[in-house]
Specification:
Blueprint (H helix, E strand, L loop, with lengths): L2 H17 L2 E6 L5 H14 L1 E4 L3 H8 L15 E6 L4 H12 L4 E7 L2 E3 L1 H9 L3 H43 L1
Antiparallel strand pairs: 1-3, 1-4, 2-3, 4-5
Family: Belongs to the universal ribosomal protein uL10 family.
GO cellular component, one term: large ribosomal subunit
Keywords: Ribonucleoprotein, Ribosomal protein, RNA-binding, rRNA-binding
Length: 172
């Protein structure tokens, strides 16, 4: 790789580290190409990305970013998983590590907060941003639905009473 390609990669990684909410670092030694493709596909489906970069270039790109706390984790064959959703990358990485023991989660960072492997696992148990939005919409809609039911209840009761009188008159 020549100097310009290295400079481009460093600037790209610096942009990744400054714009994404969470970065997870893991060792991938022993993963097959098929396993890596499967991991990349799962990450892409969740809205996250996996990148394998030279540790030296990644540590240069970390300078001046909020996630600079992951620099000591960049030793050996490491991969970087990142996403703008604070939960997506951690959730996919932890799920993949459960089924494939060759992926070892070393830690990560969420903003300025450094995460150890247990912190990444705890982050993975949280609901995703879309799930939280769905719950919030459900909470907002529930009172409106109840109000509509209460307002419509007297009218429904009145309609049933008129219907009962109508049937009584028809039967007589």
């Amino acid at each position: 790789m020549d100097r310009t390609a290295k400079a481009d990669l460093v600037s790209t990684l610096n942009g990744v580290f400054t714009t994404n909410a969470v970065v997870v670092v893991a060792h991938y030694k022993g993963l097959t190409v098929a396993d890596m493709q499967k991991l990349r596909a799962q990450m892409k489906q969740a809205g996250a990305t996996v990148k394998v970069a030279k540790n030296r270039l990644a540590s240069i790109a970390l300078d001046g970013t909020d996630v600079a706390s992951i620099k000591p984790l960049l030793k050996g064959p490491t991969l970087l998983a990142y996403s703008s959703d604070p939960v997506a990358a951690a959730k996919v990485a932890v799920d993949f590590a459960k089924t494939n023991d060759k992926l070892v989660i070393l830690g990560g960072a969420m903003g300025t907060t450094a995460l150890n492997p247990d912190g990444v696992k705890a982050l993975a148990t949280l609901p995703s941003l879309d799930e939280l939005r769905g719950k919030l919409v459900g909470l907002i809609q529930a009172p409106a639905t109840k109000i509509a039911q209460v307002v419509n209840a007297p009218a429904a009761k009145l309609a049933r009473v008129f219907g009962a009188y109508a049937k009584k008159d028809e039967a007589a």
